[in-house]
């Protein structure tokens, strides 16, 4: 517990347990641990291992492209059941919605009697206490949340309008259950996390340190001659090694991922641990001090000057 409860990356204990499992179960040569609500929301219809039949009725449109979404509704008029999206994309690092994009999505779903679902696994309780939906003033019909409601411990949740939620067991016919759902350890951690987040000045502090961090990294990148863009909202941030702007995943793929890999390795050697993928959003926390931010910016500038 002194070393932390979750790292978002492999730890030594994972290997120790894996060796015990592999030695005990005849069929297992390798194993992988999993316990996260983000896995319930993520994925592309054409991902390897996903049968075409499982996504036959799933349509996709680029984020921030309202014309593409309108075309889907026009071609599938009366049959589209729902739209699910991250209101603020964190699974391509950091992509904010264009002005009026979310409002247009909300309008289209209402006009076409379709359910609007927000994947707030990343944005929930990070952009504001009420998540991205409170921050942008857009109310969906359903919301998914991740491990932040468990203080970082493994837990997930979905919730929404009463008429929809009453379709689930035991009130309704849709079966949903899980052995560890609502386990007391994660619930206790979540209760105390939300109490802490609700204290006055919490989100102002997160916005302050995150803003300083991102401005420092962007300034360092430009000063050392790199094409770089990025931004933040409250405790969520990201940057790309491209001039930008970045409005969707196709734009994000223009980022120099090889350079990001060198940058990540470089700052890691300076004792700064960032998410290892160019396409993972970054988060600050109340545990981070201004001294931590200054150290991170200094490390970033040092590495950027030599890669």
From TrEMBL:
This is Glutamate-1-semialdehyde 2,1-aminomutase. One of its GO terms (molecular function) is pyridoxal phosphate binding. Its cofactor is pyridoxal 5'-phosphate. GO terms for cellular component: chloroplast. It comes from the Eukaryota. InterPro entries: Aminotrans_3, PyrdxlP-dep_Trfase, PyrdxlP-dep_Trfase_major, PyrdxlP-dep_Trfase_small. Belongs to the class-III pyridoxal-phosphate-dependent aminotransferase family. It comes from Hibiscus syriacus. Pfam families: Aminotran_3. It catalyses: (S)-4-amino-5-oxopentanoate = 5-aminolevulinate. Keywords: Pyridoxal phosphate.
